[in-house]
Known about the structure:
Layout: H1 2-5, H2 14-33, H3 40-46, H4 54-59, H5 64-73, H6 80-102, H7 112-124, H8 130-140, H9 143-160, H10 169-174, H11 179-194, H12 198-213
Helix pairs in contact: 2-6, 3-7, 5-9, 6-7, 6-8, 7-12, 8-11, 9-11
Amino acid sequence: MLVGLTPLLPVPFLDDHLKAYFERRLARAIAASRGVAVSEDDLRAIGEGEGQDLIAQIGKGALLLPVRLLLRKVFLFLNVKRASDAASATYHRGYLLDVALEAGAHPPQRSASELRAAIAATLEETPHSPIGAALRLSFEGSKALLRQALAALVGALRRMRTTSTEVDLAEALKESKDRDVFASLVDRMRQAVDEIPAAYFQELEERFLERLAKPPVPDGD
């Protein structure tokens, strides 16, 4: 859900930083739930882009001006399709990462780059996912909640610049006064995904595991 909010931020670079930050955090949480230790370098390789200095940059005020400008623009436009597409892609990647970890296909058995490539290739074969359509309908019916959640995210970013300590942004949002807004959005997204037939997930897993079963391609080939 948090990744889905990032395309709605009309500030260059900030949206990509946040997207990478949340995706890497998600990968870390999935690995922890499976009892798998994954290095930060591997998390960056599996995740989408860099963004590792996000918290430090906000704390130093490097992103202060864009965040101030964002407050004046945050409610002007909600691109629901971009938001739902980002949320759907992240859900798929997280789902397949969990499948890979359960199957033991993770570093050091398989490199992070191989795992990332297998996930990406599987998703390229799935251009019209019912999850994307379901989340789009969910977001379309939740625009008021999206605006509230986006405002809460911006407010959290502004508050982060006043602290010199490392902050878990997602946890801060979960514990904020707006936690009910985020919980409501998550519940709506979960309900939408729960309506997807189990056969879709089974077929997705089978294609992914078949791809992972192939021997790694040597570097340079």
